[in-house]
Design brief:
Blueprint: E1 4-6, H1 35-46, E2 50-51, E3 60-61, H2 65-76, E4 80-82, E5 86-93, E6 96-103, E7 106-112, E8 115-117, H3 123-127, E9 142-143, E10 146-149, H4 153-163, E11 171-175, E12 178-186, H5 196-204, E13 215-220, E14 228-230, E15 234-235, H6 247-271, E16 279-283, E17 288-289, H7 303-308, E18 315-319, E19 323-325, E20 334-336, E21 342-345, E22 357-359, H8 368-374, H9 377-394
Parallel strand pairs: 1-4, 8-22
Antiparallel strand pairs: 2-3, 5-6, 6-7, 9-15, 9-17, 10-14, 10-16, 11-12, 12-13, 13-14, 18-21, 19-20
Helix pairs in contact: 1-2
């Protein structure tokens, strides 16, 4: 198919690059629409942009190197690309979509018979005034990730391995003589996080605010020696609940995020061995929004779909990822596992009004809690592949 990717940034990838969302979470591989992911691994290995971690997760990517990996994959697939381009309007006439696009001083129109909304916020669906789902009970929390460099990763890995013996939380390994690790801590101490007392000491010492302890998770970065990626801070505003669709609130969250990053950096340098000379080398250019807008499609993916494990006639993906709700309120997080593989039907990626309009990514047609299971990156890769194959089959 003749394909055009319209991208608002100067590189592909969205959260995996601009958002520093890494590594890709490990999920069940049931060989449904994973060709793209397998190609991504192959290209990344060739470009030294990936490692396979001790748990078998091969989705540990370098967020900078993978930008050129995506370019190479797109070019080799024969895909045209428009970077630094925004879609300002969409209209529909005689089974064809007309997109008004803006690129600095240039305006242009794109006409297409098939349109896929991969904006993450259902921007195309909203411009067409299509129905948005509003059954949200609580908000998924937002993060603003960052990277610290000049870390002695071997020193920290050796220390954390002895300090936290819970292998469900903390793991370490070596790949090509480089030390890699993963560890975490949250302000809900039911799991008896080993790092929790250190965080509480930092609060007492006024290095951290209590809200800075809400969520803490770190990973060494592949082929970026001395660099550590942070899946935090969790962004919390004391004055009000989080609304991921409020543009003024998003600006407040960005400012608060950078303040929290500065405090967490001071914390790491003071309390964590190996971080003594660390510095901030990268702050994400995108907020880590887990859920905002969900569009209404031909099928609204539900928690019951996950529980039943029923395989639909046209399955877009297979996964065993749990219902993973990150609340913006203490004590409201939810992690619900199922003991089987579940399937997403292609109809949850199809508009209920236009047969040639599709959606991929976190804004798919799903209930709030069901979306919390399907929103992970590997699943989103499969959504894109499933839609592409479906369009090709009807072309």
């Amino acid at each position: 198919l003749k394909t055009l990717l319209i991208e608002k940034n100067i590189h592909a990838g969205g959260l995996i690059t601009s958002g520093l969302v890494l590594p890709v979470m490990k999920v069940e591989d049931c060989a449904i629409n994973v060709d793209f992911y397998n190609d991504l691994i192959s290209y990344s290995k060739k470009n030294n942009a990936q490692i396979t971690y001790i748990d078998g997760n091969d989705g540990w990517f370098n967020p900078e190197l993978i930008k050129s990996v995506f370019d190479e994959m797109l070019i080799n697939a024969g895909c045209d690309i428009l970077y630094s381009t925004l879609v300002s309007d969409v209209t529909y006439d005689n089974s064809v979509f007309k997109l008004s696009c803006e690129q600095e001083m240039l305006s242009l129109y794109i006409y297409t018979k098939y349109l896929v909304d991969g904006t993450g916020n259902g921007n195309i669906f909203q411009k067409l005034n299509l129905e948005i789902l509003k059954d949200k009970e609580i908000s998924q929390s937002t993060t603003m990730r960052f990277i610290l460099s000049n870390v002695n990763c071997e020193k920290f890995a050796n220390w954390i391995k002895k300090f936290d013996t819970n292998k469900e939380v903390t793991t370490t390994c070596k790949v090509k003589n480089n030390s890699y690790f993963s560890t975490a801590c949250t302000w809900n101490n039911e799991n008896n996080w080993a790092l929790y007392p250190i965080f509480m000491q930092a609060v007492e010492d006024r290095i951290l605010k209590y809200s800075d302890c809400a969520y803490f998770q770190v990973f060494a970065v592949p082929n970026m020696p001395g660099s550590v990626a942070f899946n935090c801070p969790k962004l919390i505003l004391d004055s009000c609940d989080i609304d991921n669709n409020n543009i003024f609130m998003q600006s407040k969250l960005i400012i608060e995020g950078r303040c929290k990053i500065n405090r967490l950096t001071s914390f790491c340098k003071k309390y964590l061995p190996g971080f003594e000379n660390a510095y901030i080398s990268n702050i994400s250019d995108m907020l880590g929004i887990r859920e905002s807008i969900r569009v209404k499609g031909k099928h609204i993916f539900s928690v019951q779909d996950i529980i039943s494990g029923r395989k639909p006639e046209n399955a877009a993906l297979a996964s065993n990822y749990p219902i993973d709700v990150h609340s913006d309120k203490k004590g409201c997080d939810e992690l619900k596992f199922v003991q089987h593989v579940w399937y997403l039907p292609i109809e949850s990626l199809m508009s209920d009004k236009y047969n040639n309009l599709f959606v991929v990514g976190r804004c798919l047609s799903a209930e709030f809690k069901a979306q919390a299971a399907v929103r992970t990156q590997k699943n989103c890769f499969s959504m894109g592949e499933a839609v592409a194959k479906y369009i090709k089959s009807i072309f």
